[in-house]
Design goal:
two-stranded antiparallel ribbon, 15% strand, alpha+beta
Length: 136
């Protein structure tokens, strides 16, 4: 459609309005943190850990390998003597540390649902074969 523009006799095409149900177009993100950028709290924690010389991933790796030891101390009530024993992680602790580390290497898998209408027929056939077999 054309309409008259101004009084000079020229015609310009009319712009069409988008339908009322159309979703607004996504606009480019112009402010805020960029995707993947750590927030202030995460940066603060990372700086504090670095200042302390603490690397949680390295610690967990040492636990998995059994290299992280701790001293366990107690006082013998009978003698009053302090005893110190070096203790390493047990198998459950090693497994838990390995699980924690694994999430940084491999993504966690999500469960998926599979619709298999034929599976019901297969179970039915298996049941019939078992019933038929026992009747002999």
């Amino acid at each position: 459609m054309y309409r008259k523009a101004g009084g000079n006799g020229e015609s310009k095409p009319r712009k069409k309005k988008p339908p009322a149900t159309a979703a607004p177009a996504k606009e480019a993100r112009t402010s805020g943190r960029k995707k993947g950028t750590p927030n202030k709290r995460t940066l603060e924690i990372a700086k504090r850990l670095e200042k302390l010389g603490c690397d949680p991933l390295e610690f967990l790796a040492r636990v998995v390998l059994g290299k992280e030891k701790a001293d366990l101390a107690w006082t013998d009530k009978a003698t009053g003597k302090i005893e110190i024993v070096e203790v390493g992680p047990n198998l459950d602790q090693k497994i838990q540390a390995a699980k924690e580390l694994a999430q940084y290497i491999a993504p966690k898998r999500k469960a998926i649902e599979i619709d298999m209408p034929a599976a019901g027929r297969l179970v039915d056939k298996i049941e019939r074969v078992i019933v038929d077999h026992t009747q002999d």
